[in-house]
Amino acid sequence: MKEVKLLGVWSSVYCHRVIWALKLKGVEYDYTEEDIANKSDELIRHNPVYQRIPVFIHNGKPIAESIIILEYIDEVWPQNPLLSADPYEKAIARFWAEFLEDKSPTFYSYFRAAGEAQEKLAKEAKELLHIIEDKGLGKKNFFGGNQIGYADICLGWIACWLELMQEAAGIKLLESDEFPKLLAWSKRFKQVPEINESLPDNDKMLTYFRGLRERFTAAPAP
User: Fold this and answer.
1) Residue 17 sits in which domain range?
2) What's residue 218's pLDDT?
3) pLDDT (average), residues 195-216
4) Both 56 and 162 in a single domain?
């Protein structure tokens, strides 16, 4: 058994954040797929507070919450750093990660809603994407500059999950004429070999999101 283990779920972007970081660092790990409807004793034992994935276990010591796990990985394995050594650049990367964590409920609400409510939430989501594109990414190749880093990994669900969520939801957010820089970043992000090789299957993910969408928008039983 390797000294590094990850408890996760294949469809979770939070788990993929950890996987991407480990791949970029070249760290080998064991992976256990969890069933959220029937949580394992191992998951509950290692994350008794939240009882959710991902759980990262290093030398028998568990750590929860993806952005905390990312910082731990970056400190323990300093090769291919995710965060800049410069305190200001490090703070900016953390800011954008926290910004999206704080605003992500808007995107999830947009995905779950229908009709006028969904249209309103889609508008709010686009406003947030404009902020991320203009103020966060700007003219850079990646959020931290010329190479992939912490903020890119934290915002990676825009590139890999949101594009499929919007297809299942029926109202597109990421239009090429409206978000050219963000879509160009998305393409670069997914072309990074360590990211590309660990992306979930598109068709499987789209089927998953369509199933969720049907459940969220189904009329309640009389």
Assistant:
1) 4-76
2) 84
3) 95
4) no
